Amino acid sequence: MGKKQHPAFEGLKNDLSKGKINRREFIRYSAVLGISAAAxxxxxxxxxxxxxxxxxxxxxxxxxxxxxxxxxxxxxxQISWITPSNQIRQIAEYLTYTDHENITHPYLLKNxxxxxxxxxWTLNLRPGILFNNGDKFIADDVVFSLxxxxxxxxxxxxxxxxxxxLSDDGIEKVNDLQVKxxxxxxxxxxxxxxxxxxxxxxxxxxxxxxxxxxxxxxxxYTLESYVEGERCLLxxxxxxxxxxxxGDTLPYMDAIEYIDMGSEASPMIVGLSNGDxxxxxxxxxxxxxxxxxxxxDPNVTVGQVTTNATRVMRMRVDMKPWSxxxxxxxxxxxxxREKILALAYFQEGLLGQDTHVSPKHPEYAPVETPxxxxxxxxxxxxxxxxxxxxxxxxxxxxxxxxxxxxxxxxQQDAKPGGFKINIQIMxxxxxxxxxxxxxxxxxxxxxxxxxxxxxxxxxxxxxEGKPVPWNESRWVDKxxxxxxxxxxxxxxVEKRREIFAKLEKIQxxxxxxxxxxxxxxxxxxxxxxxxxIAHPNRYLKADDIWLNA
Length: 549
Known about the structure:
Layout: H1 9-17, H2 23-32, H3 37-44, E1 63-67, H4 82-88, E2 96-98, E3 104-106, E4 109-114, E5 120-125, H5 139-150, H6 157-162, E6 171-175, E7 178-182, H7 190-193, E8 221-227, E9 231-236, E10 255-259, H8 265-273, E11 279-280, H9 288-294, E12 300-315, H10 325-332, H11 337-345, E13 349-351, H12 374-383, E14 390-397, H13 401-413, E15 419-426, H14 428-434, E16 440-445, H15 451-458, H16 478-488, H17 493-510, E17 513-514, E18 517-526, E19 529-530, E20 546-547
Parallel strand pairs: 1-10, 1-11, 14-15
Antiparallel strand pairs: 2-3, 4-5, 5-7, 6-7, 8-9, 9-10, 11-18, 12-16, 12-17, 12-18, 13-18, 19-20
Helix pairs in contact: 1-2, 2-3, 8-9, 10-12, 11-13, 16-17
């Protein structure tokens, strides 16, 4: 196994032998403790998924054409869409990488070490990496990026993720290739947090707030042009730090061209089917329409993956009428989840339970799915002072066809419960401009590999007790936050699930959201595109994709 093992590793092996965790959970938790996924897999007899490629099959060259929105980007830490992160992640990179199996690996890091109390994390950087302007990647870049994430004026979701356990004075540069993080409390999710999509590592020498003006990253491509609403063109680097199976420097392709075709899926579907496009990036749109249209197309490869992504109907608790939990509960009772999943998403997912913890999250504690009960909804509205019902406005993005259908179904099923819902449909770009501001809306939340990660992002408060940047509903519950803090530092799986049982119950009983379904998602690519793996976040890792003629 090499270096000294973390003292908790023996406990993990014991849990595995007793059947308390499965082999994949063992590998994931071992990786958190700094033990390589390959070494942990070897102990379990489980082979990690590896890409099948050889020097004889790989082809170099070509331009990868992909449809996807090209939106305004300045500070990468402020990114709140997956698609722009997919564009920028080809230029800049992350300290870690969470793969499609939810196992987190070192990336710009060579490895990490964690203390027995989970409060001191030593990050060892991979040596010999250069930014695309020739600067060396060193510890100063990591320290600078961390400080940017924690800077309140930047307004990054990373502050909501890290701010509860890390402050500026807890970041220590040991030398040019080592950084130590001294946490305020134990935290097991740090490696995953470092792969949150805004966590791109910046060049501390050149970054001044606008990445497009100084696009200096360690990634496999350089930025040739970026025109908002039109096109993002990326060109191959010749001095990237990773090597391909043929022994030459990655990436395999000469260029990547993102083409903005708006938010309607139909023209993208046609373009992929007829070969004008190589791929569709539907990260910030609904994939159900494309799936039904392309699943039998002989010219298209459809990669499917089960995810922890969901559609969150959230209510601003700092605004009337949603400040009254009886009103929130009433609208939750108006959800016919089986019907919504069947009609909005073609049964391609799992039922939601009004808690932002998926049955696929490792900490999930089984809870009952709330039943459709309009009579109970009307009674709650009466108790809240609305005996004649309540009229409300609901904001949704037009690019999410399943969300629009979800809203339409809820609009009908909520009438017997006393709600008149006016659906306000707008372009996705407009929704994202105000997604944290509308009083009632449905937001698409992407996959997160662990439950604490999304709860810290969306339902936590900062050190002053104020909602963190991505707490769109403004819901701050003292008991919930205290329990979440305990869960963040609890490695024992059974104890962690006990805490999550309480967290899930609180969200169901007095939380600010309803979610009807968890989504299956897909990656759509043309037949000439090779070595694409469907990631549950729809992240595009393009360094080792190649194109057949």
